[in-house]
Amino acid sequence: MRTVLTFVPLLVLTSCVKIPPNFHKCNRKSPDFKSCVLESAKKGVRELVRPYPELTLPRMDPFEISEVTIGGSDGPVNFQQKFTKCKFYGLVDLDLDDFEFNFEKKVVKMSGVFPEVRMMCDYEVKGKILVLQIDGIGNGTVILKNLKIMDVLPFEETKRMGRTFPKFKSSSITIDPELVVFDFLNHDNRALSDNVNPIFNNNWKDIFDEVKGDYANVVDRVVLNVVNSFFSKVSFEEAFDSA
Ligand SMILES: *[C@@H]1O[C@H](CO)[C@@H](O)[C@H](O)[C@H]1NC(C)=O
């Protein structure tokens, strides 16, 4: 299975920057550090509706990915999907219920729910689903309802100019939607989309299970990109009080 992902090019700046003024700092020595970080992260996610070029953070609503290719498998969903010009809506509505910075174990853990994520792309597919040959190009929307996520992000610390910058090594996200709704429009053959959409929607669980790992990989890379962009500019000393 192959997953290719291309981001819309981001602006890259190398100088150190101040964190945004509305970013809420928490004190590492305070007894309510944990709940403070959760509140701060909750608010921080909502602030991503606009881009922060100084932190190399793109706008997250919509969040744009120029290309995602997901390879075929040997299961009942045997097709290659190439999505281009993807726009994701609803990512800033993430309702975090846990966000923990563990400095000793050098790991961040988070979990939460996206009420609704909407992904709109142009697509090119080649292959079969069940018995139906579904080659074609078109555009489509995938809606993920009440998408539960859980993520573990181990990091290493690097020192620069006397400050500590975490570098997140990996992201292991699990994604678990309550419902997935597919709406594809085939440009060449409208009748085909009329036939395929009900099949997709009646079998959404099996179909989603098949591609879930690939989608999780895409999300992992987006998450890593966001946290590493932020923490390549903002050190622990700037993000947290410790006096
Ligand atoms: C395809 O694109 C058209 C025009 O942008 C849009 O109106 C339509 O809703 C899209 N269809 C799907 C299934 O996303």
TrEMBL record:
<comment type="similarity">
    <text>Belongs to the TO family.</text>
</comment>
<dbReference type="GO" id="GO:0005615">
    <property type="term" value="C:extracellular space"/>
</dbReference>
<dbReference type="InterPro" id="IPR038606">
    <property type="entry name" value="To_sf"/>
</dbReference>
<dbReference type="Pfam" id="PF06585">
    <property type="entry name" value="JHBP"/>
</dbReference>
<protein>
    <recommendedName>
        <fullName>Protein takeout</fullName>
    </recommendedName>
</protein>
<feature type="signal peptide">
    <location>
        <begin position="1"/>
        <end position="16"/>
    </location>
</feature>
<keyword id="KW-0090">Biological rhythms</keyword>
<dbReference type="InterPro" id="IPR010562">
    <property type="entry name" value="Haemolymph_juvenile_hormone-bd"/>
</dbReference>
<dbReference type="GO" id="GO:0007623">
    <property type="term" value="P:circadian rhythm"/>
</dbReference>
<keyword id="KW-0732">Signal</keyword>
